[in-house]
Every structure is written in structure tokens, then in C-alpha cells.
Amino acid sequence: MTRNKSVRDSGIELLRIILMLQVIFLHVCTYGNYSKFALSAGGTHELFYWFIWLMSRCPVYVYIVLMGYFLVEKNMSLNAMKRRVVSTYLVMIFYSLTLPLLAWATGNLESITLSKVVEMFFPLLSRTWYFMSLYIIVLFFAPFLNRGLNSLTKKEYSVLMAGLFFLFSIWTVLANLPMTKEVVQLTKVFSTEEGKGLYGFIYMYLLGGYLKLHVPKKEKAKISYLVLFVALAVLNELLVYQLEGYRKIVGYND
């Protein structure tokens, strides 16, 4: 930060660009049927697909990590939180209204029903876009979370994150694998909604806060982190082929 001007971190900006490319790739796989083609083709096509897809599973979560990283130290008042929520929701409702109308005007939407109109005006409650709905909810809780997180010692924060890691990254996986799901259950305990639930988003916000408060910032990026990320993607790909039922849950953002 300078006195009157914010200085952007080139590394963070590059990360955001990469994350957006990953989001595009995931949507091509889901709505462009690339995944069906690659999996049916098999061989190198399938291997390449799994490798790139597994390396692109985290963009949504990383955006929330960045949110926690940049907001955790802010002593945000309720009025400041309200302004952020309202401004974000106005953008959300703008697209919620204009996109269906454009689709209807161009003939890509046959009719706009009463329920569709209500949904257009209340995109948060109708879950028109799950990410934006959860983003706004986390934003609402941010002032309260920040006050608690800034009062924790590094040891207390570390224990909290370790417990949450067990819940979301170990318990969830064991509860969905055929060999362990009979004895490890999630029902009536918590539900991660396959990584698209509020629990996971708050967990990522807390992770971003931990990185900001208790991990020293390095001036130069460490190539070892990138190597570890690629290695974990390779390990995931091996598990997809070797561990029964793993390919059904490896896409969960848990």
C-alpha cells in the first residue's frame, strides 16, 4: 500500500487469471461435453483429461481463500459490511434480470413464467448462482469471523484448521468410499454438498485468514509449491485408476 493508492500484487493477479482459465475449462468439460469425449476415447485422451481436470478443481475455493486473505485484518463495521453486500447483490441482480430477458428476446428462452420472474428478482434465495449466493453469505459473516480470528493465537488457529481439515478433507472422503462408507457417515452430522456448501466456503475463508495472519509473506514465489501441487494432481490421478469409487468423489471440492 502507498499513501493514496493501492499497489496490486502481480503474483495474485496472475493467480486470478489462471483461476479464471480453470473455471472456463471446467465449464467446457461440463457443458461442452469434453469430459464425455475424453472418457469415452480412453487412452492418452483420458489421461490428459484427468490430469488437467484434477489440476483445475480448486478455482472457486481459491477465490474464497483470497477473500479471507484480504479481508481478515479489516475491522469491518456493520455498515461497511452492508455496503459490500448490497453492491455485490446489485451486480448479481443486474445479471439475473438481463440474461433471461436477452435469452427471451433472442429466442433462446421460449417464455418467462411467473416463477421465473420471482427467481430473477431474488437470485440469492433462488440459488441462481451458488457461488455468488455463498460469497454474499460469507461476506455477511466476515466482520464477526474477523474479530474472532484476530483474537486467536497461532497455535489455537492451527488447531482449528487441523480440525476442519479432518472434517472436510478426510472424514468426507472416507464417508464416500465404498470400502469405508459403511462405518464412516456424514448423515445428520454435517454436509459439505460436494464442496458447494456454506461449510466449505467458511473453511476456505478461515484458511485465507490463517495464511495472512500467521504465514510470513515471501518476496519470491517458491517453485517447490508448484511442484507439490503437480505431484498431488498426479497422485490423485493414480488414485482415480487404482482406488475403487475414488473417481466419483475426487471432483468434490472438499
What order do the helices and strands come in, and which of them pair?
Elements: H1 10-31, H2 34-41, H3 43-54, H4 59-71, H5 78-105, H6 114-121, H7 130-150, H8 154-174, H9 198-214, H10 223-242, H11 246-249
Helix pairs in contact: 1-4, 2-3, 3-10, 4-7, 4-9, 5-6, 5-7, 7-9, 8-9
Low-confidence runs of at least 5 consecutive residues? none
Number of contiguous helices? 11
Indicate the mean pLDDT. Answer: 88
What summary fits the major beta sheet?
A: none
Strand proportion, as a percent range, falls in under 5%
- Give the tally of β-strands: 0
| Principal-axis shape | globular
Rg for CA atoms: 20 Å
User: Would you list the SSEs in sequence order as H and E?
Assistant: HHHHHHHHHHH
Structural class per helix/strand content?
Answer: mainly alpha
| Oligomeric category | single chain
Distance between the termini: 34 Å
Helical amount: 55-70%
Describe the structure.
The chain is an all-alpha fold and 254 residues long. Helix content is 69%, strand content 0%.
